[in-house]
Records
---
Amino acid sequence: MSASTADAAGAAGGTDTDLMEKVVNLCKRRGFIFPSAEIYGGFRSTYDYGPLGVLMLRNVKDAWWRAMVQLRDDVVGIDAAILSSPRIWEASGHLANFTDPLVDCRNCHERWRADKIGGVCPTCGSKDLTEARAFNLMFKTYAGPVEEDATVAYLRPETAQGMFVNFMNVLTTTRKKPPFGIAQVGKSFRNEITPQNFVFRTREFEQMEMEYFVPPAEADTWFGYWLEERMGWYLDLGMPPERLRLRHHQADELSHYSTATADVEFLFPWGWDELEGIANRTDYDLRAHAQASGERLEYFDQASGERYVPYVIEPAAGATRTMMAFLLAAYDEDEVGGERRTVLRLDPRLAPYQVAVLPLSKNDALVPLSRQVLEVLQPVAVCDFDVTQSIGRRYRRQDEVGTPYCVTVDFESLEDGAVTVRDRDTTEQTRVAVEELADAVGRRLRR
Ligand code: GAP
C-alpha cells in the first residue's frame, strides 16, 4: 500500500483491520454469504449466496440494469451462453493473452501471481522463486461425452464476448444504430491463481458489462461520458464519495485490446482496489471476430451510405465484488438508548429486506392484523416477518441486516387501525394508518 493510499484509508476508516472480519462474520451469521461446500470443509474459495445474499445481489444487479437498460432507449440486453466455442477465445485473443505470471516458491511450494508479491513469498518470506511462466486463466472443459480436441469448450472468462459475437443479431433485430449498447449480467469464470479477500477475487463470479458501440470519431467523448455515468451510479446508491475514486491506467497496464482504461476504485480495508473497469476497446473485438468468422461485423448507415466498424466503450463491473463493497461501506456501529448496535446503512434499493413486519408479541390476537399488514406491504416491498424474541432484539436483528423500516403491530393497532413505522437510521417512530401504509412506505422507499 502506498503512503497516500494508507492516509486515505485511515481518513475513511478503511484500515480498520477488524472491518473485514466483522463483515465476513456478519455475512455468514445472517445468511448473506456462506463458504461453499462447507460441510466438506469448503471448496477452493467458492461461495454460496444465502437467503439475504441472494436478495442483495439481485438488488445490485437490478439497480445496474435499471440504470443501464431500463432508463435508457439506447441500450438493450442479452443473455449469452456460458459454455463457449474455443473459436471465440482464439479470435478475442484470450487463448494467447489472458494469462497471469505464475511463480512457485521453491521453499514452501506455494504458488503466487508474480506481479502481486514483489519477489518475496508471502507465506514463508523466501526469495527463492521460480521464473514466472504465463498461466492461462480460462477454465477448459469438454462439451459432449468424448474428451478430445474437437469437443473442447471454455467457460467464459468475461460476458463481453457474448455481445460482440451477437452484434449483427442485435443490430438487425432491434434496428438500433450507433451510438447504442448491449448489456449483460451473468456468471464468468477465471482460474485465478490466488483467489482472495472473501468474494473480492473468486474463480466463479458475476459481472455486469455493457458494450457501447459508437462511431470511431466519437469514442473519446463517449469514454468520458461513461466514466461520469458510472461514478454517478455508485454515488447515487449511497457509496461515500471519499471511498470512491477514478484511476486512469498507465500505458503499460492496458489490456491487449484497449487504448484507454480507467478503473472505478473503492477504498477496501487493504487499500484502493478495482470495482469496475471502463475501457475504450476500439474496434479490436469486432474486427477480430469478423476476420476469424468471415462475417461482416459492421454498421451500414443507409441514409449516408457510410459503412464502418464501430468503436466500443465498455463499462465492466463485478456484481459480487460490488455487493461486497456496498456491505463494507454500509457497516456501522453506534449506540441507541445506551445500547451498542450494529447497523448496515444500506440504501433501501440494495437492502435485502426493505420492511420487517413485527407483531409486538406472539399473542394470538395480533396475528390476523399482522398478516394483513404483511399482505398490504408485500406488493410494494420485500418484507420479512418476525414474531420471536423481544421487540428490541428484533429491531437490532433488522438493523444488522440493513432493513430500512420496521412496522410494528401492537395492541393499540387493534383499536385504532394504525401501526408504528420505525426508521433504521434515526430510530424515529411514526404512527401510520394501515390503509395508508402501502403508500407511506412506498413513498419512503422511493425517496
Ligand atoms: N470485459 C472486461 C473485463 O472483464 P475485468 O476488469 O477483467 O474486465 C471486470 O473485469 C470486473 O469484473 C472487475 O472490475 C471486477 O469487478 C470483476 N471481476 C473480475 N475478475 C474477478 C474475480 N476473479 N472475482 C470477482 N470479480 C471479478
---
Amino acid sequence: MADAVSVVEHPLVENALVALRSVGTGTDEFRRHARLLTLILAFHVLRDLPTRQVRVETPLEETEGHVIDRSVIFVPVLRAGLAMLDAMSDFVPGSKVGFVGLERDEKTAIAHSYYQKLPAQLENAETIILDPMLATGGSAIATADLLKESRASRIRLACIVAAPEGIAALRAKHPDVRIFTAAIDDSLNERKFIVPGLGDFGDRYFGTT
Ligand code: PRP
Ligand code: URA
C-alpha cells in the first residue's frame, strides 16, 4: 500500500527550504524557491499516476511512449496554494483546476471558507490539494470535506511544511488522503504557527507583510 505520509528528501529540496525559511529572503527569491521546490515535489506527488501506451512519430520513425491516463484536478487553497499551481500543472497537460478560498482567523486559527469553484466530475479524477502549510490541519480537512461532498474519491495533499499536529488531525479525519511534504517540523506555537516553519507563507509569497 502507498505511504500515507511521504517526505520528499533531496538536496535541492533542502536548499530551497533553507531559502524559504530564512527571514532574510525577500519576495522575489521566496517565489523562485517556492517554484523550484514545487517542481521537485511534483515528481513525487505524481509518480504513480496510471499511464497508457501511445504511438508517436519522431522526425525519424514511429515509436511508442506513455501518457498519463487519468484526469487530474489541482485544487489550490487560496491564497498560498496558488504558489504551487503553475509548477505542478505544467507537468500535466489538460489538467483542470478548482479553487477553495479559506482564511484562518488570526486569533482562533480556525479557517473560514469564502470561495469555492470546483470542476465537474471529480469522482474519477486524481484530485490534488495544493497548500504549502499544514498547521492545525483545519484548512486541509475543510478542503477534503468539500471535495468529498463533490464526490472526489482520490485525494492527495501536496504541501511544503507540515506540523505533526496537522498530519495527525488530517489522518484522523481523512485517513485515505495521501500527504506529500518537503518537511515535517517540530510543532505549533501558541499562535498555531508552525515552528521552526517559515512564517506566514501567503504574506511572504505575495509581499503582503
Ligand atoms: C495558511 C496556509 C494554509 C493554512 C494552514 O493560510 O496557507 O491554508 O494557513 O493552517 P491550518 O492547517 O491551521 O488550517 P491562511 O489562512 O494564512 O491564508 P492565506 O493563504 O490567504 O495567507
Ligand atoms: N499558515 C502559515 O502560512 N504559516 C504557518 O506557520 C501556519 C499557517
